[in-house]
Amino acid sequence: MNVKVVLTLILLSITSYKVCAINVTYIADTNRYTPFWQNVHDIAHAAAQDLDINLTFIQGKGHRLLQDKIIEKIVNAENKPDLLIFMAHQRSAFKNFTLLEQAKIPFVTLSNFSYNDNSIHQEKIAYPQEEFKYWLGEHYDNHFQGAYLLMDYLISRSKQSKPKNTLIKALSINGDFASQSLEKSAGLTHKINSDEQTIIVQDIVAQWDYAKAKSHFKSLYQRHKGIDIVLAASDHMAVAAIEGAKELGLKPNKDIFIGGFDWERRAFREIKQEQLTASAGGHIFSAAWLLVKVYDHFHNKVVFHPGVQSPSTEFSLININNLNSMEEITYQNNFSHLNFYCFSRTFTQQKDYNFSINDLIVQLSKQSNHSCH
């Protein structure tokens, strides 16, 4: 029998048509609900309601070994989920994937194992739907693109404030050494390498800590005799750099340009007050977009593909020019007025998804009474 036919039959056996609600368990890779994770949680639950999905959020405690125990408990439970979503860690991947395969629980990982992985790792688990047929796919954001986009904007703003051909010094404040952080570093470095006027003085890790980010910034500013741009991996650390800059007598958005990630509530205030230059984000909707794909998967749409994976979503920027429209769909709780079913291929009958923030804004302006029309 043709290999493709066999694979299709296996996937159909994994994906029986669901006439009742879909039970999905999502293990959040966090040890507490930060403002960012609370938004992810709220938006995902709004999407689940639209899509007739019973969504269970579990805190993974931000620790690989604790998450391993959670997965073991799920595998051994009498009532198993129709699908499991979690951040896969390389050191536990083979063990957890094997358990889930044996239990016949379909799962989607939030990891990007295609990025900087090693041959030993890849030989053990391969790619989705290869060695592990119940591993449907990877769902992850394009952190390379997000950092490139943010650095491009920060460089542009810095150049506008300086005489032509002035050297621009950039500092990167990362959160950790995880793959997403490495992707951010690669994205901003790629942009800087393409700009002869800009150099990166250092790429440091502050462990997502406000005090460390602030202290490191002040020390490095003095060591390098000035810094013109700071790209922080979170808005929390970006605000820390802003406070550090003001303590050194600098004026944000004039003497120095600082950007972050996550679209935190405070970031909106700092942008409005013209302290923070920009924030890259949109990934607060990422879990909701994945649920749209899960819904289509259980309604016989081929949305998860075997082999090497691609980013599922890209980042957008919030700055002083688009602040009002962006704020409307994030912190005014207007996502509850969206119908996420309208983005499904079951409804649109389109070949591809449109998970852009601009389309969210358009849909929000069109919809009334929670209708897709």
UniProtKB/TrEMBL annotation:
Entry GO CC: cell envelope
SUPFAM superfamilies per record: Periplasmic binding protein-like I (SSF53822)
Keywords: Signal
UniProt KW Coiled coil keyword: no
UniProt key word Cell cycle: no
Domain of life: Bacteria
Subcellular location: Cell envelope
Pfam family of the protein (one): Peripla_BP_4
Gene3D superfamilies, alphabetized: 3.40.50.2300
GO molecular function list: carbohydrate binding
Sequence ranges assigned to domain Periplasmic binding protein in this UniProt record: 34-294
Gene Ontology biological-process annotations: transmembrane transport
Signal peptide: 1-21
Assigned protein family: Belongs to the bacterial solute-binding protein 2 family.
Protein name stated in the entry: Periplasmic binding protein domain-containing protein
The species this protein was found in: Litorilituus lipolyticus
